[in-house]
Amino acid sequence: EAMKAVDANPEGKQMLDDFRARQMDMQQKMMTGEMPDQEEMEKMEKLFQVISMNADIAKLFDAERRLAVVIQDVNKIVSESLGHLYQ
Question: Are 57 and 15 in contact (CB under 8 A)?
């Protein structure tokens, strides 16, 4: 539902797509051992703050955060259950 609201707004969708592309680029660099400099990190933080002012994008980010917590909880439960098998 949150994603549909963002998709319905071309300007908001473009802002989110640009942010995601920059975020992915930064993550790929970090995976190769290239750490972003302080200026680049600050730019990403400011960009996140700006696009989060869009109510639909803020709702999407909140939904994604909640989903990440659920996935983390499920992983913990599964790991603990499997851990008992190997003890």
Answer: yes
